[in-house]
Design brief:
Its main location: membrane. By secondary structure, this protein is mainly alpha-helical. It has helices at residues 8-15, 17-38, 46-49, 52-69, 80-96, 103-131, 137-164, 178-201, 210-218, 223-232, 236-266, 283-325, 332-349, 359-373, 376-382, 390-397, 399-418, 426-441, 448-451.
Length: 459
Amino acid sequence: MNKRKLSFWEIWNMSFGFLGIQFGFALQGGFMSRIFQTLGADKDAIPYLWIAAPLTGLLVQPIIGYLSDRTWSVRWGRRRPYFLIGAILSSIALFLVPHSPVLWVAAGFLWILDASINISMEPFRALVADKLPDSQRSYGFVTQTLIIGIGTWVASNLPWMVSQLGVSDAAPVGVIPMSVKVAFAIGAFVFLISILYTVFTTTEYPPEDMAEFELEKKKKNQFIPDILNNIGNMPTTMKKLGLVQFFSWFAFFTMWSLANPALTEHVFDTPAPVEANFNMEQPASATAFNVANTAFQKSSNEVGRYMGYYGLSSMAFALLLTFYTSKKRINRKFVHLGSLLLGGVGFISMYFIPSPIWLMGSFILVGFAWGSILSMPYAMLSSSVDPKKMGVIMGIFNMFIVIPQIIAALGGVNFAYKLIGEQTINAMIVAGISLIIAAACNLLITNKDAITYIPKVTE
């Protein structure tokens, strides 16, 4: 199919729903560990509690990719029904998460939230490949990254912003502060509205061969064989990109799960108070706990605010690439390699910074890596696979995102950082080393179409 080139605003509209998706991911990534700690979780148990995120991705994304490849509605298209279903479920879960009364309820809501976000997210990746000609793929994925950057920065700042407006950070033992509850409610609203915007402003191409498409839909019990067949026949470039993704996502899972305990302890010197260390029946001891807990909650707001800078820098990075790739070709491999190296330096620098303000620079460097991770691997992949299987391929590619996170959650992060020392801040050093390894793995990619798209004379 000859696909026409889309304008910036058409690409913007089809990508805008990612603003809401990233509100969900940023609130989850920046504040779930804080919620777990507030409800009494030990910091070494936090990665285990995060197992929901990668497991739901592993299960949900290939299924949704497979189903969306086989969906077509004249009114709703192929991918948009999944955007909408995921948005409704995600918005409900986002609103309820900070109202969790106990730890196991919060962990359960994380399962629901992450599964729901994945229902919306996977088809968005496939939509770019569906709608855009190959010459605009980098442009499309980078535009998505621009919107993701905006979402990351705003959502990461929400609890701090709400607190600045006078909403309290203080709360009784085991209760999530009102500032976090209000921030998650705002996130739920933005999630739903942004998805609705994309659903109602974007159209989709019908299947190229409708007769063949209908025949394919009628085949029974093909899901598992098709998935296994596509895994077994995975292109070499996809395998190499998978290695890059493995170390990249190990690093970012480490940040999401342990940045809050690591930085509140090492940089702000306000670790989460452990209730067992205080005699809550004595007024003085109870007051000391409340003071320490409020200090922890406020420094957690600050950690979230500084983490927002990685969204801001990824946005700037994406904006630069958006304008550049709209006119010229880029070497995707070396852009990705350099960006991951900068992110690795950013993580490692967190150990050495003399005061919290320096976290701004650390997370800005991390943002360059994040901006590239969200665009370059997908642009390289989409130029080297069968477009008819784009949904299921994108879902399978997600294995290289979730498997490293599962390994990290099941003790990989704790094991790796404790090889350096007992301090939680060492987890950020592990994240930095992991990104540097990911950068080096880019040198394995040799497929010319994946590295740099060269327009054909007939296009």
